[in-house]
Amino acid sequence: MTTLSDKKPLPPGTKLVGKWNGKSYHLERLLGLGANGQVYLALAGGRSVCAVKIGLEAAELQGEANILASLNILEKQRRPFLLDVDDAVLDGKDVPFYVMRYIPGSPVKDHLRANGSHWFGVIGYRLLERLAALHEAGWVFGDIKSDNVLVTDYGQVELVDYGGMTAKGRSIRQFTEIYDRGYWSAGTRIADPAYDWFAVAILWLHCFDGKRLTQLSRTLIPQNRHPRELMKLVRSNPRLKPMEAWMDKAFAGRFLDSRDACANWRETIRETHSAKAKASQVPAWMAGLFAASIVLCATAAVWLFH
Ligand SMILES: Nc1ncnc2c1ncn2[C@@H]1O[C@H](COP(=O)(O)OP(=O)(O)OP(=O)(O)O)[C@@H](O)[C@H]1O
């Protein structure tokens, strides 16, 4: 019997037939199990690949679908993300679902682990660009975390789970504690672009220093949770230390706007790269000394064997 319980995934091959739009979806495998529902890789009409989110809470799912529908309208130049919204009958019960474009990527933390941490410069820039576009359209993403930032094999960055997306000025709809600036006494939970910048800075700490970040959140009493504690981690991490100035601004919400956050990111990455390139260059005096020693050796060899 096929039932939708909050934790148990539906078996592969389950067919959902939309009650209102009549479209059918074959569930292939579970992509993610979250607090608000289950996301499956599916085949629409038996052919095209898509992602289906089945909700346990109809109102919550409808809220997400409404946000995605307005995003489709706002971002006409992008391929639509929301493809269908409907109900299906499973085991005699109405189950609400919506269908999205499938993003063939992995969470940013996994991507960096598999492909190398040097990717984080370009991924970070693309993520900030995506956020800047949302901010300019009047939205704040809200629930930035590794699972919701998918990176494709070609390094494209896509956001998933728009359940936290909130209009500027409203209370953040959905967030993850450790990424939340309210939790770290760094500001309110009122949606503004700085809310997302803060979460992006936490994302890099989570990717490169996850253990110490978790440890910090477990051991600090609430009164002592503060960005200065996060900055101590940044300064003592060789990967993040070069990004110190950017991270500090992101924690304090001190960029002019999201384009400024992007430009600052690019500049910091560029400076880090040129500093590394300089450090790896062999100084001229050392190269000269090396050349002279070769000449000396060659002369000695000729003299010995003559
Ligand atoms: N369009 C998509 N394409 C590919 N994978 C997706 C897509 N949408 C969601 N996923 C995967 O499914 C996971 C769970 O989806 P989602 O975050 O929407 O559920 P949720 O119930 O809101 O979860 P959470 O409790 O983490 O907020 C995501 O973290 C992501 O890995």
Order of helices and strands: EEEEHEEEHHEEEEHHHHH
In terms of quaternary structure, the protein is single chain
- Helical coverage, percent range: 40-55%
Do you know the CATH topology of the largest domain?
Transferase(Phosphotransferase), domain 1
Listed once per kind, the bound small molecules are: adenosine-5'-triphosphate
**What is the number of strand segments?**
11
Strand content: 15-25%
Domain tally: 2
Query: Which sheet architecture does the biggest sheet show?
Result: 6 strands, antiparallel
> Stretches where pLDDT falls below 50 for ≥5 residues?
none
What would CATH call the class of the largest domain?
Answer: Mainly Alpha
CATH homologous superfamily heading of the largest domain: Transferase(Phosphotransferase) domain 1
Structural class: alpha+beta
Spatial strand order of the main sheet: 1-2-3-4-6-5
Please tell me what the overall shape is: globular
End-to-end CA span: 94 Å
Query: Average pLDDT, to the nearest integer?
Result: 90
How many H/I helical runs?
Answer: 8
- Radius of gyration, whole Å: 25 Å
CATH architecture of the largest domain: Orthogonal Bundle
Transmembrane segments: 284-305
InterPro entries: Kinase-like_dom_sf, PAK3-like, Prot_kinase_dom, Protein_kinase_ATP_BS
Pfam families: Pkinase
Organism: Cohnella kolymensis
